[in-house]
Specification:
Structural class of chain A: mainly alpha
Strand order of the largest sheet of chain A: 1-3-2
Number of helices of chain A: 8
Helix content of chain A: 55-70%
Distance between the termini of chain A: 40 Å
Shape of chain A: elongated
Number of strands of chain A: 3
Strand content of chain A: 5-15%
Order of helices and strands of chain A: HEHHEEHHHHH
Largest sheet of chain A: 3 strands, antiparallel
Oligomer: homodimer
Chain lengths: ~150, ~150
DNA sequence: TACAAGTTTGACCTTGTTTGACCTTTGACT
DNA sequence: AGTCAAAGGTCAAACAAGGTCAAACTTGTA
């Protein structure tokens, strides 16, 4: 496993089932013997909004970085639908994050997530012009289907 | 025996009776003293879907190639896959029939069928050129996801 | 032997990760 | 207020995978 993923796991394990954690960029970097900016890389690729995290930080003496897990309670499906309405295209990475999040909060099963991801994968849409637009429409239809009880 | 077949045998023997293996393209290539792209050749000729494998890969540092063995020929999903390989396009009616059949024989849940149908619906694909082709590719990817053990 | 199919190689491409040099903000202490 | 050390931020270059494609070579077969 690469270092970024190890750092991700480490943070997740320290976070445990809590929903907030504060950490020091420099300490973390030293602990793993990497450049401090690597921490930013991990945060920006693994702790994104679509994965359910908010990152706040403060510079200067006594500063630090705080991760907040977004409470998954207020219907994530409706939330994502709303999010989608603002987008014209849905990039694959974003779709992966979003579907992963639905699985994390148990709005869909692992298997359902796999189905969703194969629908919006490049191998399914690759050939198409405007695949970003199609991906967005497909994901939107899925969410609508999931809302119907 | 040619090198490609030796590499194939090697991979199979390491895989043994397991149904998943992760390997490094460059290491393998070095081990057999061949061009890295030869590994792709082996994968694409010997570890195909019809031979019962899915190949996934990730680039970049910490990347790698994963082979997954999938279900046998006798299940309805594999049957539909075979059927699909002969088609260039998948009309919506046909997709409805096929997904319905999967639900009938309990290869998917009702809810999974709904998700599948929304992915291939006209409201998802309506705008696209060649929506029949895209529908076929999406349905195909779904089947592949469903076969994963 | 000639042709077709299968194999092997290498040049070039795309994506994901890691590092380091340089920049900005903040709080504490004159 | 002014200074400055202690955070964290940005960005581009280097590195580390794997992917693609076509040309060259080999093998099997009519």
């Amino acid at each position: 496993m690469n270092i970024s993923s190890e750092i991700e796991q480490f943070i997740l394990s320290v976070l445990g089932s809590g929903d907030e954690i504060t950490l020091s960029r420099n300490e973390l970097a030293q602990y793993f013997s990497v450049a401090p900016s690597q921490i930013n890389y991990v945060l920006s690729t693994r702790f994104t909004l679509s994965k359910g995290f908010i990152v706040r930080s403060k510079r200067g003496g006594g500063g630090g970085i705080t991760l907040v897990r977004i409470a998954g309670e207020d219907d994530p499906i409706a939330g994502q639908l709303k999010e989608l309405e603002k987008m014209k295209e849905l990039p694959l990475n974003r779709a992966r994050d979003m579907a992963g999040r639905l699985a994390d909060v148990k709005a869909v099963t692992q298997r359902e997530r796999d189905i969703i991801l194969s629908c919006v994968s490049d191998s399914a849409l690759g050939g198409a012009e405007e695949s970003g637009v199609i991906r967005r429409n497909i994901y939107r239809e899925i969410l609508i289907a999931l809302m119907r009880k």
